[in-house]
Amino acid sequence: MENKSRRSFVKKLGVSVGAAGLVGGSSLLSSCNQVETASGDTIKLLTSSGELVEVSKAQLKPADMPSLSENQKRGRQGLPNRKFVMVIDLSKCRNARECMKGCQNHHQLRPEQHHINVLQMQDAEHTAPYYMPKPCQHCDNPPCTKVCPVNATFKREDGIVLIDNERCIGCRFCIAACPYSARVFNWFEPRDAEKYEGVTYNIEANVPQKKGTISKCLFSADRLRDGKLPTCVSSCPNGVYWFGDQNEDAVTNGTTHETTSFSKLIKDNAAYTLMEELGTKPRVYYLPPKDRAFPFQGEIEDHHS
Amino acid sequence: MMEKTKSPEESRKLLDKITFDLTRSIVKRDELTHFWYFILVMFAAVGLWGWGIQIRDGLGVTGMRDYVSWGMYIANFVFFVAVSLIGFLISSSLQLLKISWSKPISRVAEQIAIAAVALAGIIIVMDMGRPDRFLNVFLHGRFASPIIWDVTVVTTYLTISVLLYYIPLIPDLALLRDRGGDDIPKWKMQVYKILSLGWKGNDKQYKLVAHSMRVLMILILPVGLSIHTVTSWLFAATLRSGWDTTIFGPYFVAGAFVAGAAAVVILMYAYRVRYRLGDYFEELHFDYMGKLLVFVCLVYLYFNINEFWVPAYKMKTAEGIHLRTLFTGSYAPMFWSAQMLGLILPILLMLFPFFRKPLPLTIISVFVLIASWLKRYIIVVPTLEHPFLPVQNVPDYFKHYSPTSIEIMITIFSFMAALLIITVLAKMFPVITIWEYAEEKGIDKEILAEPKK
């Protein structure tokens, strides 16, 4: 595998347009702890890592907060000249589930709601079991967006399939249409609903979540706009995920930050896509679970319990 | 067969009797009527209250979750669309083919069509996560989605069905306006006066009625076929095993005729007994309806064999899992009772004339109708319980669907509301077209237009 030395895909993404109404970073968190005691006049803010923090109003400086309509507009357009692609190396996955945790925090999901779900797989009766993280496949021929009656879920030019919960009517046809079971529904008030009250809706993170609407993996489109890797990719401790731009033919590993050629990576490792026979043309590629770095520890469940 | 023209005196006498018999439903106001209304309204109200809870707390109050995300509501929706298709069969297809025995049944079929298609529309709104955004369907409608096709054809079908009900009703309303007995409440007479649109009963008007009816009967053919075909595509347009099949359109349409014909038999029997209309819904009508039911059941059986036998012969992995749940798994009792009690046994029994007599046929029809509902349920739910990828890392109740009390309440609401529509129609307007019936009996149109002595 050829490594183009840290040719930072991440930097190239960094055309950060106003940081999606989010205030950045952990420095803010530490500073506000001191202020809070001085004045009770605080305000809730959502950081780009998906944490909700309280800051004193006195500390606030006007940032360029995009309005809802601006968010919606640019969210539907996507990032120009990009074709996002993900490669999941099944030989590395040891079911650490850091991706699932990070994702649920980022997207305000309840414990049973998964934008990404690490499945225990066994392809045939006597074959070896393995762990398979399963995000939305961001298909190029998406069965879900086809059936949406109101264009609430749609495919962007940069390859990401998004969901607009300001428009979704909750008919759940897209859930029925998705063969990858990638979509979840807000059957109740979403997790921490009260904390997110008044936060401007960001279509690229689908946050705040809304009762009675659909949610799904978005490749952390809000982070991509800031030039960051998706949450699941960055949270993986085992180097499972590669993420990048097919136009550039470059993918970066979320754990090692190593950047390599996408086409070479999938060629050398005989990558495949999930259920390609369905013609959905996924943008997520899997590297086969051979020479697994960790033994399978779970008990294999019946696939169709 | 049209009978010979009668003398004016005879005609007047006969018309008085027909009018008297066919307004019995309108006049009748006894304890049972009140009790029936009370039951319907009370259960419907309880269901609406359940919907209120669902709106407040979210669709999580149902048994549906991320895997089985469609449940009883969608089964009800498909059932109602199915039942409504009988209007298309009886009051259009059979009339266009000039099958005269079905004439007195047309209005019964139309009542069922209107009530069922209206409730199909309502139940689908009750299934939505955000019913408040219903208008988005019109504001942001995407024509690539089968849901938009469904909304289009279902509303068109409802409109044509209402017209098919209303237009032949106009001469009847005028007749009641002019000849109605004193026992008809004043406010109903007022309604007849307004709705009869100043009908005079001249040849030109009758021609207009005949012409518009013909146009509507032809128009409803493609629309009727579409409603159930498009409804089947809501499933067939997905990639899931059990739904991913090409015969769903005709399979659903055939099944719809079975459900609808059974519903018509039950309603005919109810009117026959309750409003003493034995001379109108005769044994002959039940006999023919029985034969019709056998015929549509056979067609449906043929589609069932295709739908289940062909994949069962191959047992492809995912299809096999689905079929095993139906044949021998958790849905086997429901599946086999629907097939046996709702299809095979009725076919065999109805081959004997005895079982085509009013009461036995009605009992069979009740079984057929219940089985039709079960069939819709097992079309919707089991497929969703078995997606392609394993269901993991979710609570156990995500894996199997069973309806909650809220869903049952709302389902009861939908049935009660449908019966309420039918009851109101029967209490407001004659259940058989008086003028058509009189014409069949050889009564001259001029007599119909005569005012009351």
Structure, explained:
The complex is a heterodimer of chains A (305) and B (453). Chain A has 305 residues and is of the alpha+beta class. Chain A has two domains: 9-66, no CATH class; 70-287, Alpha-Beta Plaits. Helices cover 21% and strands 18% of the residues of chain A. Chain A contains nine helices and 14 strands. Chain A has a six-stranded mixed sheet. Chain A has a two-stranded antiparallel sheet with strand order 2-3. Chain A starts with a strand and ends in an 18-residue tail after the last strand. Chain B is mainly alpha-helical and 453 residues long. In chain B, 72% of the residues lie in helices and 0% in strands. In chain B, helix 4 (72-84) packs across helix 16 and helix 12 (248-274) runs antiparallel to helix 16 (358-385). The longest helix of chain B has 34 residues, at 203-236. The mean pLDDT of chain B is 91. At the A-B interface, strand 5, helix 5, helix 6 and strand 9 of A face helix 7 and helix 8 of B.
> Quick one: CATH class of chain B?
Mainly Alpha
Radius of gyration from the alpha-carbon trace of chain B, in angstroms? 23 Å
Structural class of chain A: alpha+beta
- CATH architecture annotation of chain B: Up-down Bundle
Q: How large a portion of the residues of chain A is in β-strands, by DSSP E?
A: 15-25%
Count of separate DSSP helical elements of chain A: 9
Topology order of chain B in helix (H) and strand (E) letters: HHHHHHHHHHHHHHHHHHH
CATH homologous superfamily assignment of chain B: Formate dehydrogenase/DMSO reductase domain
Largest sheet of chain B: none
How much of the sequence lies in strands of chain B comes to under 5%
Q: If you consult CATH, what is the topology of the largest domain in chain A?
A: Alpha-Beta Plaits
Radius of gyration over C-alpha positions of chain A, nearest whole angstrom: 20 Å
| Assembly category | heterodimer
Structural class of the helix and strand makeup of chain B? Answer: mainly alpha
- Tell me the overall shape of chain B: globular
**What is the total tally of β strands of chain B?**
0
Question: Mean of the pLDDT scores of chain A?
Answer: 84
The total number of structural domains of chain B is 1
**Greatest contact between two chains:** A-B, 50 and 50 residues
**What topology, given as strand order, has the largest sheet of chain A?**
1-13-12-11-4-14
Provide the low-confidence segments of chain B as ranges. Answer: none
